[in-house]
Design brief:
Layout lengths: L4 E2 L4 H11 L1 H9 L7 E2 L2 H10 L5 H15 L4 H5 L3 H5 L5 H15 L13 H8 L7 H10 L12 H11 L7 H8 L6 H12 L7
Antiparallel strand pairs: 1-2
Protein name: DNA-3-methyladenine glycosylase II
Family: Belongs to the alkylbase DNA glycosidase AlkA family.
Pfam family, one: HhH-GPD
Length: 210
């Protein structure tokens, strides 16, 4: 079974400091007082769910994931490798995502996906290691940093939800350049992951849990 979800130990400090530094964050934090980021101690599950969620909406990703979990019973590397391509595609996965998920499952099943040492690595080192696996790009690696390693200061600038949330709450719905987004995000350091999470909530109150 998948590992239980846990609240990062820095959460209270993070929301206190974000609210003090940024009035927009203060408002968003007040809107969602009873929910928080929850991390899962299962590296394969987090990466698999991130692959499923690539380039589609949260709602669509949840639908595909639920079909996959129902079909497999539990989304494990063994279960993925024991299934056919056609059956995985019937859950709503594209051909390419089936290939990515299968490659990840092989890495995990063969012991080549071992995050036990990664807790001591800096963010960029973890990203470099992960993107060497087929189908894992920077966005997926950043979701892993947030939802598995619980890194507090990740700013996923390729994330559609983050871009939309910043435009909505800071720029009258106008999308800005990455350089301008980075400049704004200096307000949030060292809690960019937490700020990102609240911007996600402003668009979809139901938390995604990779």
């Amino acid at each position: 079974m998948s590992a239980p979800l846990e609240r990062p130990d820095y959460w209270t400090q993070a929301i206190t400091e974000l609210a003090a530094a940024d009035p927009v964050m203060a408002r968003l934090i007040a809107l969602y007082p009873d929910v928080n980021l929850r991390t899962r101690g299962d590296a394969f599950h987090t990466l698999a769910r991130s692959i499923v969620g690539q380039q589609i909406s949260v709602k669509a990703a949840d639908s595909v994931w639920n079909k996959l979990a129902t079909f497999l019973g539990d989304v494990t590397s063994r279960a993925v490798l024991g299934s056919s391509v056609d059956k995985l595609r019937a859950c709503g996965l594209s051909q390419r995502k089936v290939e990515y998920l299968s490659d990840l499952a092989r890495h995990h099943h063969e012991g080549r996906l071992d995050p036990s040492a990664w807790h001591d690595w800096d963010d960029e080192a973890v990203i470099k290691e992960l993107v060497s696996i087929r189908g894992i790009g920077r966005w997926t690696a950043e979701m892993f940093l947030i939802f598995y390693l619980a890194r507090p200061d990740v700013l996923p600038l390729d994330d559609i939800g983050l871009i939309r949330g910043i435009a909505l709450h800071y720029h009258q719905d106008e999308r800005k350049s990455k350089a301008e987004l980075r400049e704004l995000a200096t307000l949030w350091q060292p809690w960019s992951s937490v700020a990102t999470w609240y911007l996600w909530r402003s668009l979809d109150p139901v938390p995604v849990e990779y």
